Amino acid sequence: MRKEMDLSGGRDRAFECRNCLHTEDESARGRARVVPGTLCRNPLGVFSMDDCPVLLGRECRQFVPREGPPSAVPFDEMESTRVELLRDYLRWTYWERVRNLRRTPDEIPKKTVLEVEEKPEREDEQFVYHAPPVPADPAAAPAPEAGAA
């Protein structure tokens, strides 16, 4: 059985990770306070905190304890991070990255890049023009209309 993390801090332990992005809660009366956000950014990419292994009581190899109090991420940066997440959120590549959160860098399969020959340019292609076939029977050819001139 795999060794699981010590979760003595409970659910809040996940938000003590340096990779968890924090935002300012402006609903506090008169002053903004820093609260955990819904996103996490680490070397593997951007993740939803709902998919964080630590929140599920599992070990996360990307977990790095934060030193000091968290700092709020600016709104514009949080929006660009959210857009980055939406590129593959809940698709196969996202779930593959979520699975890799529990693996060491050596265990993560390397992606193979295939080299592909370039397609020939349009100018390299040879175009051949064929005239339409001439009807064999001149009587079968459509007669020009008399009033069309």
What is the straight-line distance between the termini?
Answer: 93 Å
Strand order of the largest sheet: 1-2-3
Q: What is the chain-wise order of helices and strands?
A: EEEHH
Q: Total number of helical segments?
A: 2
Structural class: alpha+beta
Rough outline: elongated
**Rg value:** 31 Å
What's the story with the biggest beta sheet? 3 strands, antiparallel
Q: Please count the beta strands (DSSP E, at least 2 residues each).
A: 3
The helix content, as a percent range, equals: 10-25%
* SS strand fraction: 5-15%
Task: Give start-end ranges of low-pLDDT stretches.
Answer: none
What average pLDDT do the residues reach? Answer: 80
Sum this structure up briefly.
Helices cover 14% and strands 13% of the residues. It is built from 2 helices and 3 strands, in the order E-E-E-H-H.
Show the helix and strand layout.
Layout: E1 20-25, E2 33-42, E3 45-48, H1 75-86, H2 92-100
Antiparallel strand pairs: 1-2, 2-3
Keywords:
3-stranded antiparallel β-sheet, alpha+beta, 2 helices, single chain
